[in-house]
Amino acid sequence: MQKLRACCVPCCKREKLELVHKFPADNERAAQWVKILNVAEFDGLPIDNIRKRFFVCTRHFRDSDYKNKASRCINITAVPSLNLKGLTDAEGLQRVIPPLVRPEIGHSSGIITTAVNNTIRTSLVNSQPAKIKTVTLANTPSKEAMKTGSDKKESPLPSLAPDPVAKASPPILQTAQQTPPNTTRVWRSTRRLSPTDVPLAKVPKLAPQPQSKPKEPIVLQRVKMVSPMAVRKSAASSKMTQTELEDDQQQQQQTTDKQNEQNDGDTSSTTTKVLALLECTPENLQKLRRKLDEQGGILALNDRLWQAMADGTEDDKAMSTAKDTTQFLTIKNSATDETVRVSYVWLRDHCRCRECYNEATYQRSYSILDLPLDIQPLTTQINDREIIITWNDGHQSSYNVDEIMDNSIDVYQKRLKERRAQMILWDRDVITAKPAAYASVTLNDLLCEDEMMNRIVASLVTYGFALITKVPPNQQSTEMAVKRLFPIQKTLFGEMWTFSESKMDHSDTAYTNEYLGPHNDNTYFSDAAGLLVLHCIQFNGQGAETVLVDGFRAAERLREDDVHAYERLCSYPLEAEYIEEDKHHRHVAPVIRCNSITQTVEQIRFNPADRAALKSIPSESVPQFYADYQRFAREVYSKELEWKFQLTPGTVLIFDNWRLLHGRMAYSGKRVMTGCYVARTEYQSVARKMGLIE
Q1: What is the per-residue DSSP string for 27-77?
Q2: Tens of pLDDT along 337-351?
């Protein structure tokens, strides 16, 4: 007889009832119950003590909190309802409690499968549409069973038929509907058959299909194996689960009989094969994965389900232990063999519904503090490459499968590496052998044709520089050419600047006619200019050849010859500064800066003349720093890397200040230069809109 237990809710006045429920084994959910019920007796008690001493009766749960209306077992996500505390709701006070019936357990080879409302299925559908016909499993009692004269009715063997409301999905699509707590269970005993036991009918083999017919869709129903020890333990302590088993068997048998009557009149439909995974071993799990891969399409699986199957138990304690390692949804596209493992909190943060995201401003509409870090899905399904998730806080989100995969770290790294591979690192011989490889367009073509803009920006991305020819040698025409491409950056030198050796407007060696070794500008700025524009608008003299060096190629040569020196130059905090009468700029950064994702060279900060007093490096590392700095300088000053050419009036040079180092030979005579800077963020914005960089 079922033991009566008192309900802890005050309005029940400690009345003892037949159907009560323990507090969940999961501490977080148990704490949620405690908070909702707000019982004074709970104050100061640990969760474990509350779980042992107190129960909540069925009158504080709705029918929807149970696995079905005839079930005595609540869903794992169910919580007591506050609106039922007064015991006036028809679903609470007047709820009919199903009778407690003990099912037959202990057959030697029989398999009893319970079907719940939210059984997790993965449907694999071929490109040919086919009618679904349910295969029912006969359950004829044996002669021994008929002779026993047992008072109890034999438990019918339920059908493993698919959900009758399931619809065919498009090709290459696998639909995964999952409700983690309600997995299908299988009870199995290994003891021998006793004379009083009623054996179950054997499962008949499915008849092979004619080869001429199209391949039929396959429905995989996940079935959970429980050890014999768990069966005996459950039989002794979990009467509610046994009752649920009996009730669900009866309900499913009725559904099966009804489907059989419908299917008998339809002889032209294709039979659906039903496969059951009886032993959840790692080998069988791998077989299931391979079977899904063979069918092609998208598969979305809650990692908690695989963890539960691998553990071989649904015990709440085990689920709680695995909770920290199952915060992800795994998505696999079998057609491309791409797999993405994305966390639930990432998905919740990237919800693009109107409540969470403002499409007009491309911004999130909620505070980061409102993001639940422990968010979990109640249901997950895929419809036409769209994932629809209902979260445990009631919010619903939809995601495009391609967008999720495109935003994964692996795909992002792959795209960055592909873009990097398009970059051509050059030396003097390479660049002089291919004068037509880099962009050199006339100002008239640039102003009239958008394609010329793409050619220049593509050349900047690939080679680090581009040329604009036939530009009138004045500041206004130079500014017109630059603004056709990018906005101009204003610095301490102004926007457009013009200078010569006869007028030293700023404290810089560039305003002299002395030799300038290859260097980068703005090493003293926290954000050095991205592009540098130079135009010689007047020159009467000798010398003054422009020098360009591919800094990325110099860094690559250093890494090949002395990887330790290269790595140290990536970490030395070297300070640069610029000082004049009313200005003092400073910045500390390594000589070689690498991309934090691809670990490839992203910026060179090499300007020996702009170095501040060396105080940012420990004394014991100073000798090694000078050795490494000189080692890199020898690569930069190498004749093999230096490309020299005469920059004449009418030709505008645009180059990447983060990549190329520039210099100038000493000269005599008069030389007038004009130019400007372009912020790196503006340069990258244009290149990104053109699809030239990631």
Answers
A1: HHHHHHHHHHH--GGGTT--HHHHHHH-EEEGGGS-GGGBSSTT-SSB-TT
A2: 778 889 999 999 999
